[in-house]
Prior knowledge:
By secondary structure, this protein is of the alpha+beta class. It has helices at residues 11-20, 37-48, 74-79, 87-94, and strands spanning 27-33, 52-54, 57-63.
Amino acid sequence: MKGTLRPAGNKNAALPILAATLLADGPAGIDNVPHIRDVETMLALLAHLGARSAGWGEHCGGRTARAEPRELDPGAVCRIRAVDPLAGPMLARFGE
Length: 96
């Protein structure tokens, strides 16, 4: 998969795009990511699955090649209302 998309700079755009990085084997670069708690929690959930990420604001980069299926931390899931966008990419990537 390859392409460029300019997110709107709000969590409603950024959270599903961050979750979709699970579908890529290579590095993913996302611009205009807001530095807010929900984004921070989504990055923590992705990191729990094995993704690596860095950056805020102008550029947020990530690599999910080493992501593995794991049960999500219930505490982190409770901190974010928009965890649903993670379900589809997890199902597509891990089959569960």
